[in-house]
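User: Continuing from earlier, I have the next pair ready.

Assistant: Great, send them over.

User: Here they are, in order.

Assistant: Folding the first of the pair now:
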Amino acid sequence: MSNNNIHWYAAKVRYQTEKKIKKYLTEHGIEHYIPFHKVVIERNGRRKSVERPVISCFVFVHTDRKTALALPADMSITMNFIHCLDTGQMLVIPPKQMQDFMFVLDFSEETVRLKNTELAYGDRVRVIKGPFAGIEGELVRIKGHKRVVVRLDGILAVATTYIPSSFLEKV
């Protein structure tokens, strides 16, 4: 299998099948990204910590197209790969975009302020300093605060916490 044929693909899956998929992909050595986090739930007066997917019903696989298309049958599950609206082909997520997306989702939250008036909403920006250094995205306002958003086109987007303007440059 040539590295030129390996890409990141996103798929919608049935609710609560993410752990089963993660186990299968890990056992078969297929690179994937299915982020989980701990959530405390209360049932019958008892508090319990459970692991839940950060993004429900989505999995990301890094493999060749043939292997990706065979996964649903191999695992006996429903898995619908996201397709590009223009071409109808399976959507390929660029490596840099996927790397930025994973970094932002895996990063623990930290609060800082943004005070640059030279940057406008919608500007493409790159974080040049701090824990988010190297991330590229779009400057947006969410809940009254400026943030950098990393989009997986046609799928979803994630936003950073506040970033000082001195940490940003226009792309």
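And the other member of the pair:
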Amino acid sequence: MTSPEKRVAVITGAASGIGRALAVAYASHGVRTVIGAYPGDPHDPAETLRQVERAGGSGVVHEVDVRDAAQVEAFAQRALDEWGRLDVAVANAGVLRRAALAELTDAAWDDLLQVDLTGVLRTLRSAAARMSGAGAMVAVSSIAGGVYGWGEHAHYAAAKAGVLGLCRSLAVELAPRGIRVNSVIPGLIVTPQSSDPVNSLGPDGLARAGRDIPWGRAGRPEEVASVIRFLTSDDAAYVTGQTIVVDGGLTVRMPA
């Protein structure tokens, strides 16, 4: 890969949480970023751009719904239109909906997988088509599905488990082109999504769960972003097809 100050990355779901933290981390290391944001997201991607610029980086905001293949293609193309290259892609966009099995309709199943699994495929596929040389891609899975089951979230867990198989297979397929593909499994991380008390744990649930994590607390988006940045850097030049768990030790703690 080229020197960091010349690299260009695309990140979906970058209006908040891990995606925003990653865009800022890239800015501090000279990587220019296309900041992908869902048009209906209540969080302001312009704030991500402001933080990127405060960190001394360059970026552009691009609205993209990963359920739409044409929009994803245009999103990846934006990197070439702005800077003439694409080196890094991070599939981070995701939705989380609570639904017990009896209420899990085909429509609800399909809608979530369109974002959390097929949206990942579209993101990586469009990016790979525009990488002219070596590159790196990362998809964000979840401790739910990636490691544990989660009641009333079967569709979410299935999608996140699928992300792991997708990345392993693409790592094999794209290795001859010099494109590395890895995945990360965030544990309990304080983000707008996990702080939703209806579909996820909410602030109180995160605080309670943090007491069971060996590190003593839930994680921060920046702590996941730093791992993704590593995986897409030359420091991980021989790492592909791997899954890194970022969870403060939650999954290795023996139950009391």
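Worth noting for the second one:
The mean pLDDT is 94. The CA atoms of residues 117 and 162 lie 7 Å apart.
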